[in-house]
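Entry 12.
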Amino acid sequence: MKKIIAGNWKMNGTREELNAMLIALENVKTENKVIICLPFTLLGVQGNCDFGAQDCSTHEKGQYTGEVSAEMIAATGAKYVIVGHSDRRKYHNETNEIVREKATRAADAGLIPIVCVGDTLQDRQAGKFMEIVAEQVKNSAPLAPFILAYEPVWAISPNPAATARDIAPMHAKIASIVGPECIAILYGGSANGGNVAEIVAIPHVDGVLAGAASLKPEDFIPTIEGVDN
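Predicted 3D structure (tokens):
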């Protein structure tokens, strides 16, 4: 099975920076799938990778100023969209139900949603992290093909990545919950060229969702090549 290396640019990036990334990626040879999830303003480009957005509306169209529908994203040529990222859950109070609604809307538009789940440091300290992530998986995933991304919030850059001892049991738990609609289970949270080979060697880790390590060619290319190695 091919691994997936997805980059989440978050609220970063200009057209010039994207062009530089795409030029650099022309020299990268990999059998794995590379996806860059861009701000809405940068969608519509072409390159030797796939593209996705970082969020979508729960609505199809109408008087929802500032929102972008899944149908609009699909019209740009993008194939993926992140839903339920910890930033959205934290800063926009998105519930599992809202995440599932967005994921379903994305799937109906022909996109593959990348559904994010994850535990906070408080969840882990309280010993409830497995239970909380399991609930997120069960209540956020659509009844359609999707990618699941586990991101421990306490390990997102600039914090160190979680260790194999943290990742392995969580991915095993997730794998026992998801149904056949789940295409892949990614690990997110400070994945980079220095640790990605160890991370993707863990059972039930089908790739990574990189944040800071996806913004510059000198960081993203080693992450892509690290999966191959």
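Annotation: The chain has a mean pLDDT of 96. The beta strands are 4-8, 33-37, 50-53, 80-83, 112-117, 146-150, 182-188, 207-210.
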